[in-house]
């Protein structure tokens, strides 16, 4: 059990650092991927912290994962709003043709 908890902590840390590194990329937009990496990484680190009873870090990672969830929710809301608007535009242009 301890080995899996340790692996989850290390993997979560790697995901959070990778997410940060991707935000520095100028070539492409990795914002959606970064949100999912942050969420997964924070949950894995929180599991590790809870196992070892490191409560300040546990709370920090619960807050971090909550922020990632809000970010994902807002991005999806914005995506579906744009998609709905684009579909309306397609319907109008089809009627005109």
The description of the largest β-sheet is: none
* Strand residues, percent: under 5%
Structural class, please? mainly alpha
Tertiary shape: elongated
State Rg.
19 Å
Q: Can you count the helices?
A: 3
Report mean pLDDT, rounded to a whole number.
88
Amino- and carboxy-terminal Cα gap: 64 Å
Helix content: over 70%
Which segments are poorly predicted (pLDDT under 50) over 5 or more consecutive residues? none
Number of strands: 0
Sequence of secondary-structure elements: HHH
Q: How would you explain this protein's 3D organization?
A:
By secondary structure, the chain is mostly helical. It is 88% helix and 0% strand. The chain contains 3 helices and no strands. The protein has helices at residues 2-23, 31-51, 55-96. Helix 1 packs antiparallel against helix 2 (31-51) and helix 2 runs antiparallel to helix 3 (55-96). It is elongated. The mean pLDDT is 88.
Topology of this protein?
Layout: H1 2-23, H2 31-51, H3 55-96
List keywords for this structure.
mainly alpha, elongated, 97 residues, 88% helix
């Amino acid at each position: 059990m301890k080995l899996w908890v340790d692996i989850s902590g290390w993997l979560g840390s790697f995901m959070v650092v990778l997410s940060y590194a991707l935000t520095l990329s100028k070539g492409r937009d990795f914002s959606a991927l970064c949100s999912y990496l942050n969420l997964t990484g924070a949950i894995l680190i929180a599991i590790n912290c809870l196992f070892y009873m490191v409560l300040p870090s546990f709370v920090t990672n619960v807050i971090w994962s909550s922020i990632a969830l809000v970010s994902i929710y807002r991005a999806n809301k914005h995506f579906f709003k744009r998609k709905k608007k684009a579909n309306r535009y397609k319907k109008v242009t089809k009627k005109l043709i």
